[in-house]
């Protein structure tokens, strides 16, 4: 049974994770690039501001019959300079954004690999994947927006100043209209951040259910559960549609309010300007320039409004990424600095001292004060009824979880005194699924090694598990990428996992034996390999097959979270009724 609940607070002390994502620090990580982008954007803005003034000049030149050439040339130059600097600034900003997203993704992925197993399972693989893909993507736009916003504000401010200089009465009318507009837009934007968080949470839920469903696709197909699974996915999609629709409604309001506000401003300015023109308080050229400036503020005001909306979305994504970064890793940074203890000569491989463990959320303890010892080398079988606590026991040895009470000693030292990395380097864990990574055969075989294995060692390990021919038949032999379920058969995967254990440097091998029956040849191979491993190392196997139990020098009998007895096969047969019952239930020849 998988051991997958969040650990109890007692067992996992809160340790600091990597630093949270701080947007300001990220944005200023490359000050020169940022300054360059801002400068270019400023040039583009200045060029834009210059154009209406040049129009005013051209109108004046027209009325005074002066040559237009220089003014037209200046206009074309300003337009070209504006366009080029805008493009260059956009590219620089995109570079900063891509770099920030890249660094963030790496930080998030590294952190998720360091989270406790139980936390990752509780959080959901799909949900974590959504944060690394979709949230990180949303965050990228913050860079663009964070630089666009001050520039747009600057443009609006500078334009207003020039407008005051041209005609302060018309400017007052414009500011009045813009103020009403701003209040309305801010009201809408306040609701948008909460909506984006809702949308991203819904994306995470879909991703989670979708990956879980695809992981169980064989079962889904075998039980013709496609309609059921599709209905559940459709319900998640519907939830996302509803929350996104609310977002779209809010989003659609922004440009509508903007357009309306601008049109009102334009009407008010035309009416006031017309009256002032008729009264002789305003010149035609100045009025035309003012109108051009007013038109020019429209995109900047839009940029401000939509920019704030995108900023809210980015901030919501930042919060979701920070939620992930806030999850405490399984080992604190000081753990790596612990001195690596040298294994105590002749100490038992593993000692449990009154160990208890309760899974988070579980009503009962999975283990209640268990104690047992396993020798430095040799095969120890852990047996017991389903739910007795066997897998939990293995998970504790590898420190996937930590005891609620009692202590565990590995090679003479308490597991808490081992740096996690050093502890796991001493232990090879072979799970029931014989999991392979999506990597080449060679990489999969060498996972547990500190130094690469030479070709002879690889050949010998493959030969020992009877995989030489199977691997030779793969298109690229040892360099064939594998790891997806369809690549290798169950038996081949099992033998790959055993070859990996053979090649590893570990002194202790933990083996969660699958319950499925192997064919005769593979069972013999399995026993031979386990025997070979046990000759020089400690092999602790959660045993379901009697053949494995009978080969063991030491058997630990578990029942309902307790150790009922321990000893060798014949001693236990003679004195331990639950063991005798277990053996009898498997119809083994009792000897
Ligand atoms: N993630 C979890 N959350 C809550 N309870 C759990 C969790 N994992 C295991 N348990 C409970 O802890 C107890 C021991 O489980 P464990 O998987 O260690 O038993 P096991 O002896 O390995 O069983 P099996 O032989 O069926 O695999 C069981 O009662 C089980 O229901």
From TrEMBL:
Q: Does the keyword Cell cycle apply?
A: no
The record's region (Disordered) falls at: 1-20
Q: Which UniProt keywords apply?
A: ATP-binding, Membrane, Nucleotide-binding, Transmembrane, Transmembrane helix
Indicate where this protein resides in the cell.
Answer: Cell membrane
Per its UniProt entry, which superkingdom is the organism in?
Bacteria
SMART domains found in the cross-reference section: AAA (SM00382)
Q: How does it sit in the membrane?
A: Multi-pass membrane protein
Q: Where is the composition biased (Low complexity)?
A: 1-14
**Listed GO MF terms:** ATP binding
Keyword Cell inner membrane (UniProt): no
Predominant place of localization: membrane
Q: Transmembrane stretches, by residue range?
A: 32-51, 71-94, 149-166, 172-189, 250-272, 284-308
Q: Where is the ABC transmembrane type-1 domain?
A: 35-313
Question: Which CDD domains does UniProt cross-reference here?
Answer: ABC_6TM_LmrA_like (cd18551)
- Full protein name: ABC transporter ATP-binding protein
